[in-house]
Write a structure and sequence with these properties.
Elements: H1 2-18, E1 32-33, E2 36-37, E3 57-59, E4 66-69, E5 72-78, E6 82-88, E7 90-94, E8 101-104, E9 108-109, E10 115-116, E11 121-126, E12 129-138, E13 141-150, E14 167-170, E15 176-185, E16 198-205, H2 215-218, E17 224-230, H3 238-241, E18 253-256, E19 265-268, E20 273-275, E21 283-285, H4 288-291, E22 301-306, E23 309-314, E24 318-320, E25 330-332, H5 341-382, H6 385-392, E26 403-404, H7 407-413, E27 422-425, E28 429-435, E29 441-447, H8 455-467, E30 476-480, E31 487-491, H9 498-503, H10 505-508, H11 513-532, E32 538-539, E33 548-550, E34 556-558, E35 565-566, E36 574-575, H12 587-592, E37 594-595, H13 597-613, H14 629-638, H15 642-645, H16 656-669, H17 680-695, H18 706-712, H19 722-725, H20 737-748
Parallel strand pairs: 26-30
Antiparallel strand pairs: 1-2, 3-4, 4-5, 5-6, 6-17, 7-8, 7-16, 9-15, 10-17, 11-14, 11-16, 12-13, 12-15, 18-19, 20-21, 22-23, 24-25, 27-28, 28-29, 29-31, 30-31, 32-35, 33-34, 36-37
């Protein structure tokens, strides 16, 4: 009997959840165009839509009729704030006979109040000689994302995999509006035209896209692809909109703020109402008695509908709650002249049912707890927990080793990974702010994916990173292996990223030349330490200002080792799948797939160029040949135009010579060929020399007069840049051999 009642409760709960009424259009307005229901605030005339942003056109000339947003086909309207559309694909195709462009297009969608749904879509590029961009506006500022996809032959392209070989994809940030798609080719598909003549770029609905190797050819016949737009009412939150004219949430509805953008949305106040909450009387009471005749036990009670709910009235001679979900129902009223057994039997049954329920609940909770423990043990073993414990036992002599955190510790530290605790998001995962029981603030990185074949390498990386104790490298404190994807715990750095300090106008004014030189020198020292002073050399592989954190003293902290790789001591280069960030990616590594420590040197050169100019690594505001800051910077130095592109906030008569020296170092780092670049240790030595020279009390004196040359010997020449101009150039003329020894000693002992 108890099981029967439980099953009825579950069935009715599911029926109630499924009983959602179809939203309605405005009265006397078209409610359907072809297969698409039209739901207010959308409409096909100005009288039927909320405003011109929600005006759609029903094209009756097509068969079946099509609902259009401009020239874009709409396939579904959801009152929950989504609009399904068929957006155009960007093409760049070439003729089979040569590298002559056959046709291309750059589709755009400009709707002021609608945004690309960052939770329902992803940006995709398809092709074997392809790079693509999505250019849009975020908070009224230009914004771009992109990815690259390459391959040499079809045999390396696998259906279902969109990781950069034949197909690449990128997550879409929140709040992108008015976007343009741009598909490009590196070599006009010259070497792959037999099996892939085109580059493609499009925004794809996440649950509607699964890459197929056939797309290299077959997409050429597709003009559109499904995607989702987010919509909302206005641009203010519920708190402000409720007190403003034009507030549209109707009777029996409530306002709520959408998670993916500005404006507000409406919904019926509870499950007892259905309809369109954007109409004045859109949310109507559901007559539960008619919708479900079995809501009450009809043998002992009668159903009566109420506003937003219903009640069951017991028949004469009965009392209690007559709802079928109550478990007890209507029971006969006890009579004084009846035997006491009529009281004892129902009481015994009730006690038995309660005992059965409590006992069943305890057993169920125990089984679920045991299942959770086993699941944690499974994840712990899959993620290499036993291997990590074994390796940690070898480091007992160390003062600090990696701590293995439990899943509950990190869940409590982040308030169950609350969105308010998010510090940042990237293509590899999300970073949360956490507070441990001892009130220590930490940063917790939750990755998106985990490659089970790389568990041993992951464990080795955890061990190596926890042994790194360099003042300019973010310290890894430990990890958690009890979840499906391992969690990494780092020390918390208070002052944000270098990128925000360079490109935020309010912050960049406080970033003086001395601070920028200090940041560049400390970052170079940290990378030199990773390359040459750790037990196993580490190549960072994603050096950029967004991965350099600053503390309250503007000391640099190199962070985010999500794409880093450990280099075996007997190797100097590795063949890997290309990973990195556009604008900072080493061109030699990009074309050869051969990763060396010189790849970090190139990326560091771009960082220094950003520090000097205040400009972004890739910008579509510059001419096409100057979109890459590396090329733009090298051209300016080579053509003696450096002073024209420098950040005005850092230039003065005192430091201009030092700026020129740092620019030459950056140019050397940006050599196209890796063998022409310096090592990070050489770069760190020169930058630290410039810092010391700037602090030395003789800095305003001429260190190279005849008298000082006789006294101290000739100035030391740091390196040669014949690769650029065919002549030697002295970059850091410190002049004191003891000062150079101090720099070398500091670089060799900077790790504590």
């Amino acid at each position: 009997m108890f099981l029967q009642i439980t099953c009825v409760v579950l069935i009715l709960s599911e029926l109630a959840a499924a009983a959602v009424a179809a939203p309605l259009p405005k009265p006397n307005c078209l409610d359907r165009c072809g297969d698409v229901e039209i739901r207010y605030p959308f409409g096909t005339t100005t009288d039927c839509s909320l405003n011109e942003e929600f005006w759609l056109d029903c094209n009756d000339s097509s068969s079946p009729p099509q609902l259009l947003l401009g020239n874009i086909v709409v396939t579904n309207i959801s009152i929950d704030g989504q609009l399904d559309i068929m957006n155009f694909i960007s093409f760049e195709c070439f003729e089979n006979s040569s590298d002559v462009l056959e046709y291309d297009n750059e589709p755009s969608l400009r709707v002021r109040d609608f945004t690309i749904s960052n939770t329902k879509n992803k940006f995709v590029a398809v092709g074997c000689d392809t790079y693509a961009f999505l250019n849009a506006f975020q908070n009224n500022e230009p914004f771009s994302i992109g990815c690259t996809s390459t391959c040499q032959s079809p045999r390396n392209v696998f259906s279902g995999s969109c990781s950069g070989i034949g197909c690449c994809q990128v997550d879409i940030p929140k709040g992108l509006k008015n976007f343009t798609l741009d598909a490009r080719s590196y070599n006009n598909h010259t070497y792959v035209i037999q099996f892939n003549p085109c580059s493609y770029a499009f925004v794809a609905k996440q649950d509607g896209f699964n890459f197929s190797s056939d797309y290299l050819v077959s997409l050429r016949g597709n003009k559109t692809y499904p995607m989702v737009l987010d919509w909302a009412i206005g641009d203010t939150t519920c708190e402000f909109a409720k007190n403003q004219p034009g507030y549209v949430c109707g009777r029996n509805s409530q306002c709520y703020n959408p998670p993916n953008g500005d404006g507000y949305l409406c919904k019926c106040i509870n499950e007892g109402y259905e309809g369109n909450p954007y109409l004045e009387d859109g949310c109507q009471d559901i007559n539960e008695c008619e919708a479900d005749p079995n809501s009450c036990n009809t043998t002992t009670s009668t159903c009566k509908n109420t506003d937003g709910n219903f009640t069951c009235i017991c028949h004469d001679g009965y009392e209690g709650d007559g709802k079928i979900t109550s478990g007890t129902g209507c029971r006969p009223i006890a009579r004084a002249n009846k035997s006491s057994i009529n009281i004892i039997i129902p009481l015994a049954i009730s006690i038995g049912l309660v005992g059965l329920f409590v006992g069943g609940s305890s057993i169920y909770c125990g089984l679920e707890r045991r299942k959770l423990i086993k699941l944690k043990e499974k994840f712990f073993q899959q993620n290499g927990g036993l291997l990590l414990q074994q390796k940690l036992s070898n480091y007992r002599a160390s003062m600090e080793t990696a701590k293995i955190f439990s899943a509950e510790e990190l869940q409590n530290a982040t308030n169950n990974y609350d969105e308010s605790r998010v510090l940042g998001q990237g293509s590899f995962g999300t970073v949360y702010r956490g507070v441990l029981p001892d009130n220590k603030i930490v940063a917790i990185k939750k990755s998106k994916i985990c490659d089970r074949t790389q568990i041993e390498q992951f464990i080795n990386e955890v061990i190596v990173l926890t042994q790194i104790n360099h003042r300019n490298v973010v310290k890894m404190l430990g990890c958690c292996l009890e979840t499906e994807v391992p969690l990494l715990v780092y020390e918390f750095i208070t002052n944000g990223t270098l990128s925000s300090h360079i490109h935020d106008k309010n912050l960049s004014s406080s970033l003086s030349w001395e601070k920028r030189l200090k940041i560049a020198s400390e970052t170079a020292g940290a990378l030199a330490y990773l390359h040459s002073s750790t037990s196993v050399p580490i190549i960072h592989r994603d050096v950029k200002p967004a991965n350099i954190l600053l503390d309250d003293n503007y000391s640099a902290k190199v962070a985010d080792f999500g794409t880093s790789i450990l280099v075996p001591l007997d190797q100097t280069e590795l063949s890997t799948l290309v990973k990195g960030t556009f604008g900072y990616l080493d061109p030699e590594y990009f074309y050869s797939n051969q990763l060396t420590e010189k790849s970090d040197v190139y990326s560091f050169g771009v960082v220094v160029a950003e520090l000097l100019t205040g400009k972004k690594a890739v910008s579509f505001d510059r001419p096409e040949k100057d979109r890459s800051l590396a090329m733009y910077f090298n051209s300016a130095v080579k053509e003696d135009r450096l002073h024209q592109i420098l950040d005005d906030q850092i230039v003065n008569n005192v430091n201009i010579n030092a700026i020129d020296e740092v620019a030459n170092i950056a140019k050397w780092c940006l050599s196209v060929r890796g063998e022409d670049r310096p090592t990070m240790k050489e770069v760190a030595m020169e930058l630290e020399g410039l810092r010391i020279m700037g602090k030395h009390p003789w800095e305003k004196a001429d260190l190279y007069t005849e008298e000082t040359e006789n006294l101290l010997g000739p100035p030391t020449h740091s390196f040669n840049i014949d690769a650029y101009n065919g002549s030697s150039s002295t970059v850091a003329k410190v002049g004191l051999e003891s000062m150079r020894n101090q720099v070398v000693k500091q670089l060799d002992h900077d790790g504590r």
